[in-house]
Amino acid sequence: MKNWLLAALLFPALFLPAGTLRAFEGFPRCTVVDPDTAKTGDTVNVTCDNVDQTAVANFYLTDGKNDTKIAVMDHTAGKITFQVPSIKPGRYHIAFLTANKSSMVEQPVVLTVQ
Description:
Blueprint: H1 2-23, E1 29-34, E2 37-38, E3 43-49, E4 56-62, E5 67-69, E6 72-75, E7 79-83, E8 90-98, E9 104-113
Parallel strand pairs: 2-9
Antiparallel strand pairs: 1-3, 3-7, 4-5, 4-8, 6-7, 8-9
């Protein structure tokens, strides 16, 4: 009887990670910054998923305190290209404002500005 109870408790836990990952399918995210180190004026490409204009309103560089809007030169569902704005040297995450402008979402990818 104890084994049956243990199995009943553990069975849902086995499928929780798969369900959690499925919840993020279709959610905009950025995965690669190329190059990952650049200077003001350099062109940077960011590989993303699901970042078309219906999902994302604007892109930013953020140091966790200040957000700097970036002028995107090319924007598709899978990639953005922008020129590094005039900002102080440091490490910046790519962030985006959702299309409905309800939230700013910081991405795990980093651009180091020299």
